[in-house]
Amino acid sequence: MIEPKPTPVGVSGGSGAERQRRLDDLRARYERDAPHAPFISSYTNIVFGEGDPCARLMFIGEAPGEQEDLTGRPFVGRAGDLLQRMIVAMGLERERVYIANVLKVRPPNNATPTLEETRASAPYLFEQIEIVAPEVIVTLGLPATRTILETEESMGRLRGLWSVFRRPSGLEVPVMPTYHPAYLLRAYTTENRAKVWSDLLKVVERLGLTPRRGEGQ
Ligand code: URA
Fold it and tell me: Does the Cβ of 134 fall within 6 Å of ligand 1?
């Protein structure tokens, strides 16, 4: 386990309006570059990410699903409902966090992102993180965790342990990997729910939040 620094070393900063402008510029660049184009041609909307550009907490998922593709918003389907309950249980509101995915467009048949797709999209996600410069990142599931931590380790070994996302710019953000809400929905056992809640409680503690126990369970 890597012990993170108590506070992230942020190189971004700036007002909410300034960060939002930079996020908008990044989105425009993503749309121009279309790094997904060699891999994915059939989708409805780019799902770039959304939330408070000054969020203290950032959630990172895998890729848009059907509902996200239709609406252009991350985590609005069933997994999104569960994520929303988790956020509320942590003592936050969805509007106060930032939510993004590794892939910005829906892969055909919701396939797990390939290494090539991830490599093409990751630089945009990394820039997104640099702009928001959150105090903590929660990675949801294996693809997001592996992308952020650049590791091949299994979820069983990574979840619940703090790691650090480091950038050449000097940005360092503590990362808490946990199971993806879609996985949790498929394996909605008391044990899995307790594991995710204990992971989230570590984040709650680190951010000094007041959890509303029960609402995410
Ligand atoms: N699953 C994800 O990883 N991201 C979404 O936005 C929705 C479902």
Answer: no
Instruction: For residues 53-78, give the mean pLDDT.
Output: 98
CB contact set of 41 (below 8 Å; sequence gap of 6+): none
Q: Which of 23, 102, 89 is nearest to 60 (CA)?
A: 102
CB atoms within 10 A of CB 144: 28
Q: Which atom of ligand 1 is nearest to the CA of 68?
A: 6
Please provide the CATH number assigned to the domain covering 16-206.
3.40.470.10
Confirm or reject: Cβ of 60 under 6 Å from ligand 1.
no
Answer yes or no: is the C-beta of 182 below 6 A from any ligand 1 atom.
yes
Task: Give domain limits for the chain.
Answer: 16-206
Tell me, in angstroms, the distance from the centre of ligand 1 to residue 140's CA: 9
**pTM for this predicted structure:** 0.93
Instruction: Convert the pLDDT of each residue in 85-128 to its tens digit.
Output: 999 999 999 999 999 999 999 998 889 999 999 999 999 999 99
Q: How do residues 155-193 score in pLDDT, each as one tens digit? A: 999 999 999 999 999 999 999 999 999 999 999 999 999
Q: Is 101 in the pocket of ligand 1 (CB under 6 A)?
A: yes
**In what order do the strands lie in the sheet containing 57-61?**
50-51, 98-101, 57-61, 136-140, 172-178, 163-166
Q: Is 135 in the pocket of ligand 1 (CB under 6 A)?
A: no
Q: How far apart are CA 49 and CA 100, in angstroms?
A: 4
